[in-house]
Design brief:
Helix content: 40-55%
Distance between the termini: 24 Å
Structural class: alpha+beta
Order of helices and strands: HHEE
Number of strands: 2
Shape: rod-shaped
Length: 89
């Protein structure tokens, strides 16, 4: 699982919890407002979801290349594997 998908999932959880606190809870507490906490969680969840989506989209522009080479040497065969991960310009 890449970071974008994890962040999107976390954002969805925050949105659900925030929506429950904002719209479904009718309790009140002294010292803080539960509905304000719900709004804050909703906003943070939406931002997390959007950032995760952007990371997933930008993660699709990566390119990976593998080069494998086998050489005959006096001591036997020698195998070399080289892998590069590059961002597409």
């Amino acid at each position: 699982m890449n970071r974008g998908a994890g962040l999107m999932g976390f954002g969805v959880v925050l949105v659900v919890v925030g929506a429950i606190l904002e719209f479904a809870v009718s309790a009140s507490a002294k010292g803080f407002n539960i509905h304000t906490v719900g709004v804050i969680l909703l906003v943070v969840g939406i931002v997390s979801f959007v950032v995760g989506l952007a990371l997933m989209i930008s993660g699709g522009s990566r390119r990976s290349s593998v080069r494998e080479e086998t050489r005959n040497t006096p001591g036997g065969q020698e195998r070399t594997v080289e892998q590069r991960d590059n961002l597409v310009p």
